[in-house]
Amino acid sequence: MGRISDGLVGKVAVVTGATRGIGKGIACALAEHGATVYVTGRTTGAGQNPLPGTLAETVAEVEARGGKGVAVALDLKDDAQIAALFAQVRRDEGRLDILANNAMAIPEAMTRRDGFWEKPLDAWEIWDTGMRAAYIAAWHAARIMVPQGSGLIAALSGYVGVTYTYDVVFGTTKTATDRMMRDMGHELRDTGVSAVSLWQGFTYTERARENLKTVPGMAGQLNSAVGSSPEFPGRVIAALAMDPQVRARSGGTFINAELAAEYGVTDKDGRTIPSLRETRGAPLWSAGETTWSKP
In 3D, which of 31, 53, 34, 33 has the Cα closest to residue 43? Predict the structure, then answer.
């Protein structure tokens, strides 16, 4: 499959955690519209991770889809590496149009049915990568986007923002992600830059498929009609990035399935992914609902 449109030709994207899973799916979906995609992650060679996927493999797929891929090895726990990534984008591209904050550590303990007090304290790495590093990446991205007067910062979240899923740190991280994007949208008003939080439902990533086999209670979802491919959220982000009215959504939290319905986006197999609003919960934050106020 090659390029399906030129809607993102000349646009530059950074996708975190793009060696596999949703990050890889986002990179490939943006490439199908001609984007230059900075593919970031820690897996530079086969065998470094028990799950399949490397930076080079994602870049090859990006280019096969019609985009340009740039591989950047990135440890999100290293602030200097994050700064170096955005310095490279500024130097080599002179612009940045899309930041997809997707990466988040998923420690083995996250899916254990234990209380938070029974899990090791290093489970907090979920927050360190999924929230702290996302904030730092957005900070660097905004310093490129605001002067150019355009850009989209998208963060991957989920129904876990309001519904218990897996564990305390996971839920805390995703709830904070929604609030962070709401407040970023508030401060980015009138800059031309948009910030959104996107709720993704069950996704058939490599890790999720393994969890379905090993985590108690998950096997029943293996053939669930509500699950999507890892490319589905990327298709939604591509539609947002090509929408000239995207700024009207800034600061909001949105369910990917509902945005897809608005934009006429389907999953890669043509399926319409259902919203789980009625059973899993509704977003707390709407777009543009706040105004500046003094303490």
Answer: 53
Strand pairing partners for 36? 12, 68
**Six-digit token string for 224:** 């669930």
Give the single-character DSSP code of 29.
Answer: H
d(Cα 27, Cα 60) in Å, to the nearest integer? 11
Amino acid identity for residue 104 in this structure: M
Contact 146, 96 (CB under 8 A): no
Q: Are 121 and 179 in contact (CB under 8 A)?
A: no
Domains annotated on the chain, with CATH: 12-280 (3.40.50.720)
The backbone torsions φ and ψ at residue 25, rounded to the nearest 5 degrees and listed phi first, read -60, -40
Phi, psi of 29 (to 5 degrees): -65, -40
* Residue whose structure tokens are 């029943």: 220
Spatial separation of the C-alpha atoms in residues 245 and 255, rounded to whole Å: 18
pLDDT tens, residue order, the chain (295 aa): 789 999 999 999 999 999 989 999 999 999 999 999 999 999 887 766 667 679 999 999 999 999 999 999 999 999 999 999 999 999 999 999 999 999 988 888 888 889 999 999 999 999 999 999 999 999 999 999 999 999 999 999 999 999 998 899 999 999 999 999 999 999 999 999 999 999 998 888 666 555 555 555 555 544 556 788 999 999 999 999 999 999 999 999 999 999 999 999 999 999 999 999 999 999 999 997 654 444 3
Residue 36 three-state SS: strand
Q: What pTM was computed for the model?
A: 0.91
Coil, helix or strand at residue 96: coil
Nearest Cα to Cα of residue 93 among 70, 60, 74: 70
Six-digit token pair at 95?
Answer: 């612009």
